């Protein structure tokens, strides 16, 4: 394959919104991918956490193939065979709710924000509209979701931003309490901040926030776009905190590689968005729902939640071993297979060096290596990845 020619087409014709590493991925299978020159990599950050089941999981591929033969897309003026089934599957695995389908995490969050405002303004007829989010959060790239994302770097140059958002430090209950006014409609956050550097919410904090929302009639929106679908060892992270959200947002690995977003709305609020108030052309199409249903089936059939716990403990033990060995590692964070290795140095070159040795990982917030292998990862694959990390850390400290 003509690698140079393919990359030059991007340079000429694709808007330059991404920093890309110079390989062209052409084939994937489980935890492994291959590039256009035939080189093999272990993918420990598959598709920005989209390919949670690994690449081209056979059950997902087969469901897509089967559905593609009968119906790809049905507009939401009609019913299709699978949207209701997928909603029921999400509800069965989460809490008493109804689901709105879209195509991305940003859209799922946008719907959650619209719902919170509409509930108070239209259903309760109260002037409540403020949304409180957390510093270092990430909720998407639309104008409203970069405003919800409390990181100036994502907002710069896009003023004026939509009004009615307030930011507080993560895990600081006093600051949150102090930010509440009679205009507060919702509190929205990730239980484990992914892009923000794998920052884990304290259990006590989350319980207090849930209680506060009940007392003050505030809608609790939990963004599980990255933590959802088994990543932390349970289907959704909220169950580990002993709370139930009012609204939960999903995307990424829900579709097994197909684009999907879902806003899961507790019964009390589930009829707020009525016909004409919200929609998405592609939302809940049968081809995407077929893939997402196969994701749930595969997680159950292959007992993947158990594997996340088992391999999560295993890789964490090995990473802690590396932490003892190398001064450049500051801290290890995260549950299950959602891991952040915070470094004392920038991580960009480490990501490149790992790639050169056949391991794909990510670096976020300049210094946090994000390691999120597929839910079905094996101990052998983990050993191989750790060996590469060990060599790269050794070389980096020597340099
Ligand atoms: C927690 C969280 N919410 C929302 C989003 C936005 O999702 P999307 O890129 O699908 O719009 C992301 C993406 O990284 C995310 O990690």
From TrEMBL:
Broad enzyme group: transferase
Cellular compartments per GO CC: cytoplasm
Catalyzed reactions: N(2)-acetyl-L-ornithine + 2-oxoglutarate = N-acetyl-L-glutamate 5-semialdehyde + L-glutamate
Modification N6-(pyridoxal phosphate)lysine, positions: 252
The keyword Transcription belongs to this UniProt entry's keyword annotation: no
Cofactor entry: pyridoxal 5'-phosphate
One Gene Ontology molecular-function label: identical protein binding
The UniProt record lists the keyword Transcription regulation: no
Annotated transmembrane regions: none
Binding residue positions for pyridoxal 5'-phosphate: 105-106, 138, 223-226, 281
Family named by the database record: Belongs to the class-III pyridoxal-phosphate-dependent aminotransferase family. ArgD subfamily.
NCBIfam families the UniProt entry points to: argD (TIGR00707), PRK01278.1 (NF002325)
Complex formation: Homodimer.
Miscellaneous section: May also have succinyldiaminopimelate aminotransferase activity, thus carrying out the corresponding step in lysine biosynthesis.
Protein name as annotated: Acetylornithine aminotransferase
Organism listed in the record: Candidatus Taenaricola geysiri
């Amino acid at each position: 394959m003509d690698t140079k020619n393919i990359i030059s087409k991007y340079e000429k014709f694709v808007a330059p919104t991404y920093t890309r590493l110079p390989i062209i991925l052409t084939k994937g299978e489980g935890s492994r991918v291959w590039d256009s020159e035939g080189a093999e990599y272990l993918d420990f950050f598959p598709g920005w956490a989209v390919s949670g089941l690994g690449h081209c999981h056979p059950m997902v591929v087969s469901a897509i193939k089967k559905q593609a033969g009968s119906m790809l897309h049905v507009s939401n003026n009609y019913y299709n065979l699978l949207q209701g089934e997928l909603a029921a599957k999400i509800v069965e695995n989460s809490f008493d709710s109804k689901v709105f389908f879209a195509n991305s995490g940003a859209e799922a969050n946008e719907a959650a924000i619209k719902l919170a405002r509409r509930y108070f303004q239209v259903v309760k007829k109260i002037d409540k509209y403020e949304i409180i989010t957390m510093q270092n959060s990430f909720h998407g790239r639309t104008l409203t979701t970069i405003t919800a994302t409390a990181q100036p770097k994502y907002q710069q140059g896009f003023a004026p931003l939509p009004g009615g958002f307030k930011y507080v430090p993560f895990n600081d209950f006093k600051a949150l309490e102090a930010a509440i006014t009679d205009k507060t409609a919702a509190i929205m956050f990730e239980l484990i901040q992914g892009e923000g550097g794998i920052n884990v919410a304290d259990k006590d904090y989350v319980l207090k926030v849930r209680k506060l929302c009940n007392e003050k009639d505030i809608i609790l929106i939990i963004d599980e776009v990255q933590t959802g679908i088994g990543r932390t060892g349970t289907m959704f992270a909220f169950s580990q905190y002993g709370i139930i959200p009012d609204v939960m947002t999903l995307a990424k690995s829900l579709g097994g590689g197909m684009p999907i977003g879902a806003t899961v709305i507790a019964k009390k609020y589930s009829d707020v968005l009525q016909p004409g108030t919200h929609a998405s052309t592609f939302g809940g199409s049968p081809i995407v729902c077929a893939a997402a249903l196969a994701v749930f089936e595969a997680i159950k059939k292959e007992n993947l939640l158990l594997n996340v716990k088992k391999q999560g403990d295993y890789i964490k033990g090995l990473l802690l071993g590396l932490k003892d060995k190398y001064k450049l590692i500051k801290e290890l964070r995260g549950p299950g297979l959602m891991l952040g290795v915070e470094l004392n140095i920038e991580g960009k070159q480490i990501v490149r060096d790992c790639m050169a040795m056949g391991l794909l990982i990510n670096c976020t917030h300049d210094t946090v290596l994000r390691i999120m292998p597929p839910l079905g990862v094996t101990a052998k694959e983990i050993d191989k990845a750790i060996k590469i990390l060990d060599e790269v850390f050794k070389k980096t400290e020597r340099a």
